[in-house]
Every structure is written in C-alpha cells, then in structure tokens.
Specification:
heterodimer, A: alpha+beta, Glutamine Phosphoribosylpyrophosphate, subunit 1, domain 1, four-stranded antiparallel sheet, 4 helices, B: alpha+beta, five-stranded antiparallel sheet, globular, Proteasome subunit beta (chain B), cytoplasm (chain B)
C-alpha cells in the first residue's frame, strides 16, 4: 500500500443531497495496510439532531478529532442553551483543524446537516487543515473517493426523494469500494429528513 | 539465438531493462499523485495433491497499490494441457515467466513426442526465477498431472527454490491461512475434502488480506483433464463475520 499516511487505515465516506433530505454513508473497515482487523469501524458521528460529520483518514485521528469536536459542541450547547446548526458545526471543525495547521491531523471530513424548519440542506467537504468547500450536492472523502465520485455524479439527480437518495448513495458507495482494497466490508447509510433519521446497514462484498 | 534457453542473452531484454531504468527517475520527476504503483497479483494461491490428481485455487484480485485493477483475474495459467502454474508477485514478471516456459515445454513435448513431466515444468519455472533472482519478484506454484508420478505440486518461491510438497500456499494472503492449513490438512484426503479445504482457505484469506479479493477460481487436474470451477462472491462459504 506504500507509505501514504492517508491510506494506512483506509476508509471512505460519501454525502449526497436530496429534496429536503441528505444522506451520509461510510464503509466499516478498520485495517492496518493490507490486514483487515475489524469490520465494525463506522466513521460517522452525530453532533446535533440533524448534524452529522464523517471523518476519513488515519484511524487514531478519526477517533481523536471526533471526540475533541464533541467536547467543543457540548460546551457550545451548554453555554448557548440551544442545539447546533450545520453552519456553526463546520466553522467549529475548520477552527479545530486549522489550529494544527503546521502539524495537522490526518483526517478529511464531510459535514452534513438539515434545517428541520425550512428543509434547507447542507453538505460540506473539508480537507485536513480546515479548507471547507461551498454547500455542494455531492462530496466524498477517503481512499476510494475518486471511484465513488464518478459513480455519484452518475447516479445523482436534483431533488431526489429519500428513497431515491438512499439508492443512489448506497450504489455509489458499494460499487466504488469494490475498486479499492483499503475500504469496504459493509456500509452504513444515514438518511436525514425533517422528521426522522433512518440508519441502514448494508452488507457488501466481504473482501 | 539459443532456442532451448531463449533468455540467456537477448538484445531486446537488455533494452527493456534499460528502458525500465527510467522508472527509477519517475520517483523524482512525477508528482506523487500521478505515480503508478507496480501491478502485483498480491494474492492467495493454494495447491494440494490428492490421490489421482491435484486441486489448485486462487483469488481473483490484481491491484496497483490500493487500486483494484482487475476484480476477476485468472491466476491459474496453463503451461500445458495438464500442468498449471499459480502466479503471485509482480504481474508482469509472472506473466513473462509463464509465457516463456509455455514455449519451452511446447518445444520439449514436440521433441519427446509426449507431454512433459510436471517436475520438468517446475524446473523450467525455477530456472528462470533463479537466473533473474535479483530482478524478478515472482513466487509461483506449479501443479499438474503426468503419467509417471500422477498428481504433483511443486513450490517455486522467490529466490529460485524448487521443492515438491503435498500441500502448499503462496502469496500475501497465505500468511493468514497457514494456521488453518496446519489445523485442517490431513494426508490422503478425498477429492471433495480437498476441494472444500482449498475453497475455505481462499475465502478466509480473502476476508483478511487487502491484496486478495473477488471470487475464487479452482481447477481440478487429473488423468481425465482439467475441470475449472469459478465460485462467485455470494457462493463462497460463510466464515465468521468480523
């Protein structure tokens, strides 16, 4: 696998927008270069009722950054006495990552969110030093991100309902990871709508 | 040009080696994102003798770094009608060896007017690996059936060793199933027991090894010829779900 730090543990995540719904999905592999150690390592974390973040990259940093971000969001909720909005979350993440600009964490992140009152959707893509994209329709991070981008662009249609969105996201992820030996072994897909969040576990190729 | 040993000295071979020296410069000239890792059949290969023949099996993944170039490769390469080789290591090196040995055996069988012995095929492979041991990255298993000794499995690993073994494993995925072999292999198993052993071994290795994956291809070689079986993903035996 070479000595690329970002493919040492492998892993991938994908986020896609629909009409008043967003989906975020990740694979479940935890491995060390060639060897697969566990297949229950999900990379998606919840920070508020409708805000989720996926971290991909070095596994130790996935765990550390998700926990440190949780610390900051907990304090925010205590001080402000209100729940986080997606825009606030991505700003906190940018700040957290840029603090380590010259000795960075090795994680790339996806932030997704939904405003339950207006139905407005948010999907942001961040690199490992806190450069955040605009609010985009489709974003992927991880070792198989190039392969999944291609499929995602193919399956994406504007204004999909939640079922179509789930299908598009799952197919893009499952087929993309078949071309990457550092990701796979099943997937988890979260579909976030105004009134409910559906979590589905997919069983893909176990290789 | 020496027909029996076509690789002793070859002007094209020299040119090829010179040309590939440019790939050493690639590391300094081309940005990291565009550098291609060498293509390897980092793999799992299994071969076992039974009374009357051999059963050989391999996974179907060819990768370049983490990119999976081929999800359904055929790593069971025929050298003659009843002798196969299993390839692991650099895809280019093993394909080149297989091509040359196929030619050599074809010529030999024309000279002797009978199919070549498995040991002779294995020795041709071993000779090539040993001769170019500093350049090649090839670990191969040669298995087949001949009239004289029946089913045989010969292992020709990296440095140029030749040894006959009743059962052998190869490739990066084999490290995960040596324990399985030690626990589950018994001498004098029947054909069906050997088939299950090979299939289960490949499945276990596919599950754990990143460089092995896809489906399992198995071949049963005996006096009646070769029977090829492809076991696709869904039909692989169920193993413990991690």
């Amino acid at each position: 696998m070479g000595d690329d730090i970002l493919s040492y543990n492998g892993g991938v995540a994908l986020a896609m927008k629909g009409k008043e719904c967003v989906a975020i999905a990740c694979d479940k592999r935890y491995g060390v270069q060639n060897r697969t150690i566990a297949t229950n390592f999900t990379k998606i974390f919840q920070y508020s009722d409708h805000c989720f973040v996926a971290f991909c990259g070095l596994a130790t940093d996935v765990q550390t950054v998700s926990e440190r971000l949780k610390f900051r969001t907990n304090l925010y909720e205590l001080r402000e006495q209100r729940k986080l909005k997606p825009v606030v979350l991505y700003n906190m993440l940018t700040n957290l990552l840029y603090e380590r600009r010259f000795g960075p964490y090795f994680v790339f992140a996806l932030v997704v969110g939904l405003d339950p009152k207006t139905g407005e959707t948010y999907v942001y893509d961040s690199d490992n030093v806190g450069a955040v994209s605009d609010n985009v329709n489709l974003a992927t991070v991880g070792t198989a991100s190039e392969y999944i981008f291609g499929l995602g662009e193919l399956f994406f249609k504007p204004n999909m309902n939640s079922d179509e969105l789930f299908e598009a996201t799952s197919q893009a992820l499952l087929n993309g990871v078949d071309r990457d030996s550092a990701s796979g072994w099943g997937a988890v897909v979260y579909v976030i709508e105004k009134d409910k969040i559906t979590v589905r576990e997919l069983k893909g190729r176990q290789d | 040009m020496d027909v029996l040993n076509p690789m002793t000295y070859d002007a094209e071979e020299d040119q090829l080696r010179d040309r590939t020296k440019y790939s050493q410069m690639d590391k300094h000239i081309i940005p990291v994102e565009f550098q291609q890792q060498p293509v390897s059949t980092g793999t799992t290969i299994v071969a076992v003798e039974y009374d009357g023949g051999v059963i050989i099996g391999a996974d179907t993944r060819t990768s370049a770094g983490t990119f999976v170039m081929n999800r359904f490769t055929d790593k069971l390469t025929p050298l003659t009608d009843q002798i196969f080789c299993l390839r692991s290591g650099s895809a280019a090196d093993t394909q080149a060896i297989a091509q040359v040995v196929t030619y050599q055996l074809d010529f030999l069988s024309a000279e002797m007017n009978e199919p070549p012995l498995v040991r002779i095929a294995a020795n041709c492979v071993r000779r090539m690996i040993y001769q170019y041991r500093d350049d090649f990255l090839a670990g191969m298993i040669v298995a087949g059936w001949d009239k004289k000794l029946g089913g045989q499995v010969y292992s020709c690993p990296l440095g140029g060793l030749l040894v006959r073994q009743p059962v052998t494993l190869g490739g990066s995925g084999s490290t995960y199933i040596w324990g399985y072999l030690d626990n589950n292999y018994r001498p004098n198993m029947t054909k069906d027991e050997c088939y299950d052993f090979v299939l289960k071994g490949i499945t276990l290795a596919i599950t754990r090894d990143g460089s092995s994956g896809g489906c399992a291809r198995i071949a049963i070689i005996n006096k009646d010829g070769v029977e090829r079986i492809d076991v696709l993903g869904n039909d692989l035996p169920k193993v413990f779900d991690l």
